[in-house]
Design a protein that fits this description.
Radius of gyration: 24 Å
Structural class: alpha+beta
Largest sheet: 10 strands, antiparallel
Strand order of the largest sheet: 17-14-13-12-23-22-21-20-19-18
Distance between the termini: 48 Å
Oligomer: single chain
Strand content: 15-25%
Length: 494
């Protein structure tokens, strides 16, 4: 099953890690909303791990652009098998989809440039490529290339998709299937999923869902130069080549996004360190100088804070020797602190009353809404003892970023009082997913609904304020590619 324990475990002290420092890391990250999980490895052993309830070890989590590092891994295998080379020209590999009159910069674009985000585009083509319902490769190759490839760094998720499309073209297999015997199977990774393009290609630059331990295992494989249980699993030299500095992308010594870029891996501030990096705090961090891997999942808008905590609080807690023997009492206390910090990892919904006189008055009646960004046309609100029931009429939804639905739908959702209910539906995306729903009255006329999309970084809080027969709804996302707080919308009780 997903999330089964397969990496060896150890006490922090046996691996030269101060458990009190780990506890400090967990507390600091938990105080920065919103950490979903963390796993820390030292010398190949898990020394700390935790999941903020309702997240769990066996639940898949969208990792967004951390997917790019896994796509790079597939490229490494394909190159090693002689299917193409990093210096092959992109147009030579996609002759059937090349534009009629490609410009000279596009003619000189190579696979290496896709890997290092140096395709030569002046503007990211992704916003033009991904909304199209056709062939994303063709759309990418149509986009202007203003700079000489290799001379201009620009973060380019569509370029990562091109790598996935290339692997599928030369192997006849989607990334998931191609990587199963080469990467996932040997690492004991099961049941990962990957979103696909309209033409059935894994999206490459995003869309992978995996467990925290899956992420940690891939990070450990790279930290160990591609060796797993004594076997050279990655092509010899690929781990070092993929994670090394290939291109400069800034000059700010305090910015972890300005330390250079490899083959779909970012470089970090600590010496020789690297990371796979997904939006809102999905991290796979390798610290070769310290023999450390850190994996996190999260829903944090400001991702820099998480890295700063690790550099400030984890690194000073590392030593070259086991620490328990010299200070057994301190080690025991540190272990207790760590256990307490992990146990406190919770993301509970707002608390209040299960019902109110206003709720009883609304029960069974229809609330009709004016046009709004969520496409919510009406709600029938039915009050229950342990949970409420919402019958939602949904229309078109157009929200900037990852949120969107393109066809009308009807959804029934049970909303828990004391504990959340689990609903599987298409509220946020086209593919169904688990959503944890909680509802409570924080005041007699204020109802707060929390929708935690537990397979993703996102949580939506909707607050309905009732004034007679008028209802005003405000919404807030914990993180978003677009606005986190959309304009309030109004409804009328009918």
């Amino acid at each position: 099953m997903p999330g089964r324990r397969r990496l060896p475990r150890s006490s922090p002290q046996q691996q030269g890690v101060d458990a009190a420092a780990l506890a400090d890391v967990v507390r600091a990250l938990t105080a920065l909303p919103e950490l979903h999980s963390i796993m820390v490895l030292r010398h190949g052993h898990v020394v700390a791990e935790g999941w903020a309830s309702p997240y769990a070890a066996d639940r898949l989590h969208e990792v967004y652009s951390l997917s790019k590092s896994v796509t790079s891994t597939a490229v490494g295998f394909a190159v090693d098998e002689g299917l193409f080379g990093v210096d092959d020209l992109v147009l030579d590999l996609f002759r059937d989809r090349a534009p009629d009159h490609p410009d000279e910069h596009l003619r000189r674009m190579r696979v290496r440039h896709l890997l290092t985000m140096t395709t030569g585009h002046d503007q990211d083509p992704s916003p033009a490529v991904f909304p199209s319902g056709g062939d994303w490769v063709t759309e990418f190759l149509r986009h202007p290339v203003e700079h000489e490839p290799g001379t201009h760094f620009l973060y380019n998720t569509a370029g990562s998709y091109m790598l996935s499309a290339l692997v599928q073209q030369v192997t006849g297999q989607r990334l998931l299937d191609y990587l199963q015997p080469r990467l996932f199977g040997p690492l004991g990774i099961e049941d990962v999923t990957w979103e696909q393009s309209p033409t059935g290609v894994d999206t490459g630059g995003f869309g992978l869902s995996a467990t925290t331990e899956d992420i940690a295992a891939i990070g450990l494989l790279y930290l160990q130069d591609g060796v797993w249980e004594g076997r050279q699993l990655l092509p010899d030299g690929w781990a070092a080549e993929a994670t090394r500095l290939h291109v400069l992308n800034g000059d700010d010594p305090d910015d972890d996004w300005a330390q250079g870029y490899g083959y779909q891996f970012w470089r970090c501030r600590p010496a020789n360190s690297w990371r796979g990096d997904g939006a809102f705090g999905q991290y796979m961090i390798g610290l070769p100088e310290h023999d450390v891997v850190v994996a996190t999942t999260a829903g944090r808008q400001d991702m820099h804070d998480y890295l700063q905590v690790l550099w400030d609080r984890l690194l000073p807690g590392l030593s070259d020797e086991p620490s328990a023997a010299s200070d057994p009492e301190g080690a025991a206390h540190g272990q207790y602190e760590l256990a307490e910090a992990v146990a406190a990892m919770r993301l509970d919904p707002p608390q209040g009353e299960p019902t109110s006189p206003t709720g009883d008055r609304l029960s069974g009646r229809t609330i009709s809404f004016a046009p709004n960004a969520y496409g919510l046309r009406s709600v029938v609100f039915a009050v229950g003892t342990d949970q409420d029931r919402l019958i939602l009429e949904l229309g078109d939804q157009r929200i900037e970023g990852n949120i969107g639905r393109s066809s009308p739908a009807a959804e029934t959702a049970d909303v828990g009082h004391g504990s959340p209910t689990i609903v599987r539906g298409s509220f946020r995306r086209r593919n169904p997913e688990d959503v944890l729903l909680s509802g409570t009255w924080t005041a007699p006329d204020i109802y707060v609904l929390t929708a935690r999309f537990v397979e993703s970084p996102f949580c939506l809080t909707a607050t309905a304020t009732v004034d007679g027969d008028a209802i005003t709804v405000t919404t807030s996302w914990n993180a978003s590619f677009g606005p986190r707080n959309l304009p309030p919308f109004r409804g009328t009780l009918t």
